[in-house]
Write a structure and sequence with these properties.
Elements (H helix, E strand, L loop, with lengths): L3 E5 L3 H12 L3 E5 L23 E4 L6 H11 L3 H8 L1 E2 L4 E4 L1 H14 L3 E4 L11 E4 L7 H11 L4 E7 L2 E3 L9 E2 L9 H4 L2 E6 L1 H13 L20 H6 L27 E7 L6 E4 L8 H8 L10 E3 L2 E7 L2 H4 L5 E2 L2 E6 L9 H20 L11 H12 L28 H21 L7
Parallel strand pairs: 1-2, 1-7, 2-6, 7-17
Antiparallel strand pairs: 3-5, 4-5, 8-15, 9-13, 9-14, 10-11, 11-12, 12-13, 16-17
Helix pairs in contact: 1-11, 2-11, 2-13
């Protein structure tokens, strides 16, 4: 076997795809344009750099679809999950990581693999031959984006991801804020105190909403539309949908008790999550924003405890392009018109670090099997990976296709299980049990295909 696999993009999906294919014995070339060609959001040339949150969300593999995806990736010797576990930070029931060491380790691990090499240049056109995976993510370059658009004949689809601000811990007033995970969730004291909380009374909340609505926001370029993904809405967009929206979203006050005023119930609470292992940086949970920088500092310093906040990074906004995958990709994530090209990651219409890496895992394994010349067993739809890839490659309605997180709504129903909220716990456990069994069998069946 002499054929190489070329992967365009060294983010979560591209890194995971490279790892999976390389471990199967395939020679891999990662094409990464950074740091020669920069993007708005990236700060380094590292592979696997995290540009938004530092969280992989819930790690509960029995009651949460994201946690189940974590479990499946770990069982498949996933690089992203192994590295995340190595650089894990306290975050209640979530999996959060120290972002810089995480990316440095992903880079070092791939560079040390004998089957992996990295080429630092921009790919501007779709290749006519070879074996390729395009995993360029939400910040696909304009040249490559134009080439994809010309090939597919479809108008580019886009939405805007907003980046949450990061604050220096030493600038937070702990006489007003306190450490507590919602409902004291976590097995250790460190986990139960993983979040920093800033309370608001009703007057403070109303003043904050007024300021948020009046703040200067980033303007869109001509021809751009603000088609936001609901899981990553800027806070000002949420506020525009109703004055109580934030209080029932990222600022909900439930499950928290203020030790400074234990008898006073907060009207709203802003939560911050540790962003590095040293505990010197905190990001504001769910506070993606497109406010201009000056307005951000003014508005965010209205939050009790953040009056003197100093910002390591202010929020920002960037364009995210994605394919109408149900019409363009086959069940193996190959482009119908050029089947030697697979797509993986956020460009396929999945949303989130975990989902992107999972699609990279699948693309890498599928491409490796094709190069080796050994048939891959069919991916079970009842797994988290299977449910997600089925959705984006045919299960979703093409006319209304939008980026999707993994969730139990994508799973095939189980016979005899109660519906509604009361039966949810048993139903979710049954989903995860079924998925784990199917995933384990699928991996075992690959022993004669992939090393």
């Amino acid at each position: 076997m002499t054929q190489e696999l070329h992967i365009v993009g060294g983010g979560m999906a591209g890194s995971e795809a490279a790892w999976q294919a390389a471990n199967a014995g395939v020679r891999v070339v990662i094409h990464e344009m950074r740091p020669k060609v920069e993007t708005f959001a990236h700060k380094t040339g590292n592979l696997g750099e995290m540009v938004c949150s530092n969280s992989f969300r819930s790690d509960d593999d029995e009651q949460n679809a994201v946690g189940l995806l974590h479990w499946e990736m770990r069982q498949a010797n996933g690089l992203i999950m192994a590295t995340a576990d190595r650089h894990r930070l306290p975050a209640g029931g979530a999996l959060a990581v120290d972002r810089d060491p995480f990316a440095e380790t992903v880079t070092a691990t791939l560079m040390a693999h004998p089957n992996v090499s990295v080429s630092y240049e921009e790919v501007t056109a779709l290749p006519e031959d070879g074996n390729w995976i395009i995993a360029t993510g939400p910040l696909t370059s304009s040249a490559l984006g134009a080439a994809i658009q010309a090939e597919t004949g479809a108008e580019a689809l886009a939405f805007f991801d907003a980046i949450a601000p990061i604050i220096y811990a030493e600038s937070i007033d702990m006489s007003k804020a306190w450490m507590q995970s919602r409902y004291d969730k976590g097995e250790t004291e460190e986990e139960r105190t993983a979040y920093l909380n800033c309370p608001m009374d009703k007057d403070q909340y109303e003043a904050f909403i007024d300021a948020l609505l009046a703040a200067d926001k980033t303007e869109f370029h001509e021809g751009e539309t603000a088609g936001y993904f609901d899981g990553c809405l800027p806070i000002e967009v949420m506020a525009e949908r109703g004055r109580e929206t934030l209080r029932f979203g990222p600022m909900k006050p439930v499950g928290l008790t203020n030790p400074h005023q234990p008898d006073v119930k907060a009207y709203a609470v802003v939560q911050l999550r540790r962003d590095n292992a040293l505990g010197t940086l905190y990001n504001i949970v769910g506070f993606q924003t497109k406010m201009k920088y000056g307005a951000q500092t003014d508005v965010l310093r209205m939050i009790p405890g953040l009056e003197e906040a100093r910002f390591a990074r202010l929020g920002g906004i960037h364009r995210n392009t994605f394919l109408n995958s149900p019409t363009l990709l086959d069940a193996q994530m190959r482009l119908h018109s050029k089947p030697h090209i697979r797509f993986a990651g956020q460009i396929t219409g999945v949303e989130g670090y975990v989902e992107s890496a999972a699609m990279g895992l699948l693309a890498g394994r599928l491409a490796a099997a094709e190069i080796i010349g050994a048939p891959m067993p069919d991916l079970p739809q009842d797994t988290a990976h299977g449910a997600l890839v089925h959705h984006i490659t045919g299960g979703a309605e093409a006319k209304t296709f939008q980026p999707m997180n993994v969730n139990f709504g994508l799973f095939r129903p189980l016979d005899g299980m109660k519906g509604g909220r009361r039966g949810r716990k048993d139903r979710y456990k049954a989903y995860t049990d079924r998925a784990k069994s199917a995933w384990s069998d699928w991996l075992a069946a690959q022993t004669s295909v992939l090393a």
